[in-house]
Each structure stands twice: as structure tokens, then as C-alpha cells.
Design brief:
This protein has six helices and ten strands. The chain is of the alpha/beta class. The longest helix has 23 residues. Bound molecules: adenine.
Length: 232
């Protein structure tokens, strides 16, 4: 049976999973509480990384080094970058990148990490397909999309920036951890999957919508993670 590491940036994103875990053993490292045990009978480690790319990357490396996880799942909320993707919809990663990497002054395109063979990190196709199928089963009233997730150490809440991101990177949604988790997993030859529920439209209304829709969005990701872990 594979062991899965599950990362949420915020306590709200992981506390419902933690609450239903069994045989738990807790350890704090780098200020993060790693809760090891079983979820739906499957070995897993659930952890709140904190917000942003550095927290997310450190957390991923600890999951791989200290817990030897076979797969890293990142769950949480995100801002939509596409007009047809609305608050409450879900996005599953096909790949992920970091939109705030800027070595343009050094001759590279935005988002390209100098001297790495790739800056776009891919989720295994079978994982994306499985997550989409399970999501459709357990959240039948929710629309699910799969595609690119773009991450940065920025909360996107303006139309201009949103349009720039969409034109430049063709992402479906934006958040602040997935791309870093993807890179850290890639460096360790470990598969990853990002599951995000849309909490806002990453535009001028993002601040308001985020608070109002966050809880509902998290409900859907929790449902999906609990069902998905049983068929991995
Ligand atoms: N997480 C949820 N909404 C977001 C946004 N608009 N920008 C960055 N991260 C987010």
C-alpha cells in the first residue's frame, strides 16, 4: 500500500482530514505538525505547511525524507484564471509552474527557472484522470477541470495581473504553493497531485469572495481526498 503525504497551506484546509485520521502519531518539525496515521485505512501523513512557496517546498522535502511518502497531494483553495471556471468548481493539476520566477533580466522568459531542464512540472496522467473521475463521482454537482496550476508568492486580486497570468501561462487557477510542491517532488522523483477548489476569481472581488466561499470550497476538496485515497 502506498503512503501519501497530504499538504494544506492553512489549518482550515487540513483540520477536517486530521479529525478523521486514525492511529495518529504527531511530530513537529520546521514549525509544522506532521500527523502520521491512516485515513480511510490508508497510510498517510497530513500536514499544514503554512502559506507560500518556501513553506510548501520545505514541507514536501520533510515528507519525502522523514516519512518516505510515495505521493504528495496538495489540497486547498485557489483563484480562478478562466472565465468559465467559477467559484465552487474544482481544478485538478495536469502540470504546475511558478509565475513569479523572473530572470528576464538574465535572458529567460517569465516563469523559467534558470539552469533547470524544465520549469513546468507534470502530474502523472493516470493520477489526473483518476482524481477527475473520483471527483465527478463524489461531487456530482460540482464542475471539475484539469489543467495547469500557476503558483506564486502573491495573492492575485486584480484584473490586470490576472489577465497577464492567463495570457502568459494559460493556467486554470492560481494559488501560492502548488508549483513549489511540484518542483520539490520533481527533484525527488516523487509523484504529486494538486487538488484545488475555486474560492474567488482572482480579480477585484477576490478579497471578499475568498472569505465567503472558502469553507464550502474546502468541503469539496476534503470529500475528494477521502475518496481518492481509497483507490490510489
Ligand atoms: N488562493 C485562493 N485564492 C487565491 C488568489 N486569488 N491568489 C493566490 N492564492 C489564492
Amino acid at each position: 500500500m502506498i503512503k501519501t503525504g497530504i499538504i494544506g497551506a492553512m489549518e482550515e484546509e487540513v483540520n477536517q482530514l486530521k479529525a478523521v485520521m486514525e492511529a495518529v502519531n504527531s511530530k513537529v518539525k520546521a514549525g509544522m505538525e506532521f500527523l502520521e496515521g491512516t485515513l480511510e485505512g490508508r497510510p498517510c501523513v497530513v500536514v499544514r505547511s503554512g502559506i507560500g512557496k518556501v513553506n510548501a517546498a520545505v514541507c514536501t522535502q520533510i515528507l519525502i525524507d522523514d516519512y518516505q511518502v510515495d505521493l504528495v497531494i496538495n489540497t486547498g483553495v485557489a483563484g480562478s484564471l478562466e472565465a468559465e471556471i467559477n467559484i465552487g468548481d474544482m481544478v485538478i493539476s495536469k502540470d504546475a509552474l511558478q509565475h513569479d520566477v523572473d530572470a528576464t533580466g538574465f535572458g529567460y522568459e517569465h516563469g523559467v527557472i534558470p539552469r533547470m531542464e524544465t520549469s513546468v512540472f507534470k502530474t502523472e496522467e493516470r493520477l489526473t484522470a483518476l482524481a477527475v473521475r473520483v471527483c465527478e463521482e463524489v461531487n456530482p454537482d460540482i464542475r471539475v477541470f484539469s489543467g495547469r496550476i500557476v503558483s506564486g508568492d502573491q495573492f492575485i486580486s486584480g484584473r490586470e495581473k490576472k489577465e497577464w497570468l492567463t495570457e502568459k501561462f494559460h493556467g486554470l487557477c492560481t494559488e501560492m504553493e502548488g508549483g513549489a510542491i511540484a518542483q520539490a517532488a520533481h527533484l525527488n522523483n516523487t509523484p504529486f497531485l494538486i487538488i484545488r477548489a475555486i474560492s474567488d476569481k482572482a480579480d477585484d472581488s477576490a478579497h471578499m469572495d475568498y472569505g465567503a466561499f472558502e469553507a464550502k470550497a474546502i468541503e469539496h476538496t476534503v470529500k475528494l481526498v477521502r475518496a481518492l485515497i481509497q483507490v490510489l
